[in-house]
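Subject: Protein record for review, amino acid sequence with backbone structure tokens
Category: Structural biology, sequence-to-fold work with a learned token vocabulary.
Format: Residues in single-letter code; tokens as whole numbers, each standing for a residue.
Body of memo: The sequence and its backbone structure tokens, given next.
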Amino acid sequence: MNKIEAFGYIVAQAERGDITFPTSLGPVLRLQLALQDPDCHVEDAIQLLLAEPQLAARTVALANSAAFGGTGTPVTSVRAAVARVGYRRLHAMVTVLMVRQFGSFVRDPLLRSKLAQLWEHTVYVAVLAQVFAQRVTFVDPDTALFAGIVHEVGGFYLLSRADEFPGLLDEDAERWGELCEDVVSREVMKRLAIPDPVAEAIGELRDGWLNMPPTSLLDTLLLANQYAPVPSPLGIDAPPLPEHTDSVLDFVLDEPTLNQILLEAGQAYNAMQAALLV
């Protein structure tokens, strides 16, 4: 099977809804879907967390991290972690863990290297999106964090399948990979029940342009992608921003503000990565 045939096969599967997730993702996916149910009771969420000891441990660790507002007295139980962060942030944390599971069984060293880079890029985009939301675009910061975590979910899925198709993600002058990733991303987000506003912003990201002043979730993701110090190995290329001198952007993002955003995001990145080592 050549590369184009492989892309076609994966896209056809995705469009049929035939999305295969790692078995290790099952408990995380069940919890993620439960948290989207407005009638989900806190006791149900706690029981789902406790059913997976590793997931429970990571949830407590993440609840204590600066990235998720963990300040003051540390929490030492799942119940306290859920009470501290609330359902919306718990949903974001579970999504972090869920995305991390993609490619967990990939053996090829080059693919694992790409997975590691994509994960670093994803976390940087997520924390930058949260801080840009707080300081520049004024969209909901928790939504921005969540959107950053899932903005490359199609890429994670493709990497998790690439072991089956040698050469699938080699250099691609005709950009079939981008088309495949866009289609797969859309279908994976449907399967994971990603909210429409988030899915729409991610769908527009590759060809999006920054509005002035930046005020939308898409603008937030574009800024986060532009300033993420680790690029995606699959390359959603952020359109270039104006030069940061005497530009319209300076009216909403001067140099001291940008430096402070990058500092805060770097601290949040370190906190999130440390928590995920549990």
User: Anything to note?
Assistant: The first helix runs from residue 3 to 15. The chain has twelve helices and no strands.
